[in-house]
């Protein structure tokens, strides 16, 4: 691996030495980046080419919008590395840092009718005004060891996003912008349960149908460090609790049965001894 990195560095260095124009600095930076192999491991990590909604396409190999980077620091825990994409994430001290362009890796009405990724809204739904998707530069700082608080903190004001989905999109809370209600907001969702607000921030308020569909899949992580799972996760936990309860019940019943059997045997032996003693007398 070290030899390969050195070879890459020498190739880049040859360009730097031979080329005398204003791009020298850029090539030097690229060479050093190739040598370090730490593209995801620091604040210099980027989310790829800025996406233009009018020309956006999907990359079948990455599952993201073409040009959007997926890069996960090797130091991240498995539950992040194996599930998150269309974003960059790395470890920084006691935090996980996520960077995202926040562009949906699905077709959407909100890409605009001229976009290759345009599709109509679900039957009965209506547009969210003139809102449309636009590339963002979101940075999330997530505690790596979340601690349950003693109270609650409101999320209605002051936060652009309260979390990030596994496919790099913003999570909003379960409230709508007054005077609307979430039920009204839901009527503007695209086929994947999301929509943009007036500055182009595409987001989800509820279930992410691209990620979770009546199952227990990982949906994303919130700013407090806790992961979000599909609605059936609690059902599966309850099923596990029931299974454990049933197992404990079976064990207890078995113990009770053993005790009862032992008691019967003890009584039988005692009666036999008494009978034998009586015959002897």
UniProtKB/TrEMBL annotation:
<protein>
    <submittedName>
        <fullName>YHYH protein</fullName>
    </submittedName>
</protein>
<feature type="signal peptide">
    <location>
        <begin position="1"/>
        <end position="19"/>
    </location>
</feature>
<feature type="domain" description="YHYH">
    <location>
        <begin position="140"/>
        <end position="238"/>
    </location>
</feature>
<keyword id="KW-0732">Signal</keyword>
<feature type="transmembrane region" description="Helical">
    <location>
        <begin position="260"/>
        <end position="279"/>
    </location>
</feature>
<dbReference type="Pfam" id="PF14240">
    <property type="entry name" value="YHYH"/>
</dbReference>
<keyword id="KW-1133">Transmembrane helix</keyword>
<dbReference type="InterPro" id="IPR025924">
    <property type="entry name" value="YHYH_dom"/>
</dbReference>
<keyword id="KW-0812">Transmembrane</keyword>
<keyword id="KW-0472">Membrane</keyword>
């Amino acid at each position: 691996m070290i030899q390969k990195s050195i070879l890459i560095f020498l190739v880049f260095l040859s360009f730097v030495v031979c080329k005398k124009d204003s791009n020298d600095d850029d090539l030097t930076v690229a060479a050093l980046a190739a040598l370090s192999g730490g593209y995801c491991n620091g604040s210099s990590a980027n989310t790829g080419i800025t996406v233009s909604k009018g020309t956006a396409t999907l990359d079948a190999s990455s599952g993201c919008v073409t040009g959007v980077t997926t890069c996960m620091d090797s130091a991240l825990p498995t539950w992040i590395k194996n599930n998150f994409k269309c974003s960059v994430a790395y470890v920084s001290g006691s935090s996980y840092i996520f960077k995202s362009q926040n562009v949906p890796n699905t077709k959407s009405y909100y890409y605009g009718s001229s976009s290759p990724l345009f599709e109509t809204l679900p039957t009965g739904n209506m547009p969210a005004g003139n809102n449309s998707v636009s590339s963002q530069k979101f940075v999330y700082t997530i505690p790596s060891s979340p601690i349950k608080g003693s109270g609650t903190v409101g999320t209605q004001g002051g936060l652009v996003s309260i979390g990030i989905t596994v496919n790099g999109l913003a999570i909003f809370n379960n409230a709508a912008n007054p005077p609307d209600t979430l039920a009204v907001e839901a009527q503007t969702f695209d086929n994947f349960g999301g929509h943009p607000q007036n500055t182009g921030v595409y987001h989800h308020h509820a279930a992410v149908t691209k990620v979770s569909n009546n199952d227990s899949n990982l949906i994303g992580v919130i700013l407090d460090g806790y992961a979000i799972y599909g609605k059936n996760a609690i059902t599966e936990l309850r099923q596990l609790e029931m299974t454990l309860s049933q197992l404990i019940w079976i064990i207890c019943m078995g113990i009770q049965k053993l005790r009862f059997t032992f008691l019967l045997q003890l009584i039988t032996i005692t009666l036999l001894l008494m009978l034998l003693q009586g015959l002897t007398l």
